[in-house]
Structures are given as structure tokens and as C-alpha cells.
Amino acid sequence: MKIIVLGAGRVGERIAENLVSEDNDLTIIDPDAARLRALQDRFDLRGVAGNGVLPSVLRSAGAADCDLFIACAALDETNLAACKVARSVFNVPSTIAQLRAPELVQGGALLGKEGFGVDRVVCPEASVTHYIQHLIDYPEALQVLRFSQGKAHLVTVRVAGDSQLARQSLGEFRAQHAELPIRIVAQYRGDRYIPCDGDSRFAPGDEVLLIAARENVRAALHAIGNPDRPVRRVMIAGGSRVALSLARGLIGRCAVKIIEPERVRCEYLASELPPEMLVLEGSGADEELLTSENVGEVDLFVALGDNDENNILAALLAKRLGARRVIALVERRAYADMMQGSAIDIAISPAHAVIGELLMHVRRGVVAAVHSLRRGAAEALEGIATGDEHTSQLAGRRVDELKLPVEARVGAIVRGKGETAKVIIAQHDTRIESDDHVIIFLPHKRMVRQVEKLFQVRPTFF
Fold first, then answer.
1. Tens digits of per-residue pLDDT, 90-110?
2. Is the Cα torsion angle 254, 257, 262, 264 positive or negative in sign?
3. Entry pTM
4. Which among 237, 242, 218 is positioned nearest to 300, based on CA atoms?
5. For 165-176, how does the pLDDT look when each residue is reduced to its tens digit (9 = 90+)?
6. I need a surface site. Which of 223, 246, 247, 407 has the fewest CB within 10 A?
């Protein structure tokens, strides 16, 4: 696929990292030539320096025969204008824009074909907000990803020292919970992937990825045995747009305090939130302030400021002062990698949060959802089985008959639509039907192309 990306910032860099490894023809436009050279030194891509709104620059980048245009520059106005030019001048078939303004994210005629020509909107702040809200719903999880309009969930959980799963084999766990319809698809010890089979044993600190129907997620986490304490008190350091969006989503659910250093921003936050949500002027890394506000009693401390170093420092300090769980918003990839295994429970990258939404439009075959995992090293893909046993490599076949990469795992199948849809946990003899949504875990990105081919319908299949 020929793809043009406008913007070589954090999101553009993460897009490049994910797409160049999949044999896409990728071109990135950015006014900063030095930044482009740095990306070209790291990845197999082409850089075009210039203003991506200008037709001459888009023409130089190859917009005339581009398949997908992704605008992820810093300003909404730039992204809108660039998509309009790409669609109107070069008739690019598919456009995606990163937009932050709520009025624009809501879409409508303004973004459609008669407007700015944007087919799909991604918003890093909204993605991060949803990510954190899922973690509040399931406080014992490290990550919660939704498939098939929320019917199925993929959950990452760290095995606690007193967990029932600790020092058990997968076979023993299945025998004890035979009535529980879940599938453990992956196990990680540090950064090392361990293929799951009946003899796999789990140790405290391991990260386990499981798939279950939405209604069975809490029972699955309870079976693993990690402590389940609901989140009632939340403290947020930093009054960013993400912080405001998260606070709004927690109205009526949690007691919330926000710490923000700028007085003007504090006044704005206070005017936007109900009076029971306390907005404090100060630094999230002020030990005296955190102590006086009883940070040691909060269930969740979230550092959502605009500076990585401040977020990391605030989260580490809150953890040391007794906060039960801490999350830090970290833009830089190197910092996010360093946080693995640290006192910070979860580090979230806005760029990583949106990459799955973008990958869905690059995947071949009928793909309904994509989630990037393990900082881009792995992936979970939801595709739709189309055709029949003569034209499809999925429909009419059992799971153990599929030509999957050795370590790829079919986690679940969602059959039917709407409220009547049901989640079927995949077994070796589960038979896939046409129109089933099939959720597959891929531990390595190199498996993507092989799995994509399974979802492509052929005139005849041999």
C-alpha cells in the first residue's frame, strides 16, 4: 500500500515504525528536514520537506497515486486543509486526520465529502481517556482492549505473588476453572514471549493476556486471584485536555482531585467541572502538597501533564507516598520503555493509543479492529470471515485446520450481530462460519501479512 503521512512528530514516528516493517511504500512530509533525515536513517521510508497543505508538496510526495493519506500534524487546521487538498486535487481514496477539537471530532457534514474530505478521525486525547477509563473499570488489569463493539475483551494482567495462577500450569488452571469460558493467548516474562500450552507455568510478575466475553472478564480476573479493589478516589496531576476529559467521564463515579500549576487553567477547570471535584493550584511533584491531600489514600494517581519528566517524577513520588496504583502519560518511546518494571504501574503513550485505529485502515482483507500490543511488537486483530468453504480460508473450517503462523492464537469468535451476538471461546475443534468475527493474537509483527491473507476472499480456493 502506498501511504503518505503528514507530520513527523510522535504520532508520525510511531506510524512509521509500525508501517515500514510491513512492506508499505511510506512517504512522510514535514517542514523540519532534520527530523525527516533522522527518520530516514532509522526506517526505510522517503521524506519530503515542505508544507503538506501545498499541492506542489503533495505532488512531490506522490499523492497522485497514493492509497491512504494520514494527516497527523500538530494543528487541526493543517490536518483538515491537507485532507481537503489530498481529496479534491489528487482524489486520494482514503484520508485520516488527527483532530483534537471536540467539535471536529464529533464529525458531521463538516468533515465529509462535501466538507474537508476526512474519512476517519483519530484523537490521541480521546484514545488515552478511554484507555484509562477501562483500567478504572477493571483496576486489577494492566490493559483492557475491546473487540466487536465491546462484546469481547482482551485483558492484560500481571500475576500477583498471591494469585491463584502463580506457580500453576495452564493445564491445572483450566482444570480448576473448566466452567469459565476464557482463553489465555500469551504469557510474557519481562520482555520475553512464552508460547502458551497446557504445560506452561506462571510465576509472580508474569504478564498474561486473556480473551473473554465482556460479562466474564471480572470472573476471569477473580479466578486469576489478583486483588480486586474498586477505584473510588482518583488524583490527577496536570490539567491537560486529557485530564479534563477523564474528570468529566468520572463525574458521579469517583471522588476526583486535580492538581494544576497554572492559575488560569485551574480557574477554567473549576468552571468546567462540578463543585465536588476539587481543583488545586500546585505541582504534582510537590511532596508536601501530595501528603497534605492524602495521596496515600487514593486508589489511582494519574499524571497527565504536558511534560514527560514531570509526569514520571509525580507518579514515582505518589507511589512512594502510598498511592495504590499510579499511571503516567509518557510521550517519548525511550521513557515508556524505561518504565517497564519500575514503580510506575502503567505508562501510557498517546501515539501508541491511536496506532491501532490507524492500522485498521492499512490491513488487507475485511478487518474490523486492530490493537497494537507490547509497544508495537505484537498485535491483536479482529477480522471477518467472508465467503464460503470454496472461496475462504476461514469459513467452514475448524481452528486447527487454519494455516496460521505457529505461535499465533485464535482467541475468540463473535457470531451474530447486535444484542444477540455471542462470544465463542476458540477451541481446536471450533468451526468458523461465514460472517464470524475472528480475534487472533500475533506475538510478532512479521506474522501480519500471513494472517491478513486468511481474511481475503478468492474467486476459487485450492
1. 999 999 999 988 777 656 678
2. positive
3. 0.86
4. 237
5. 887 889 998 899
6. 407
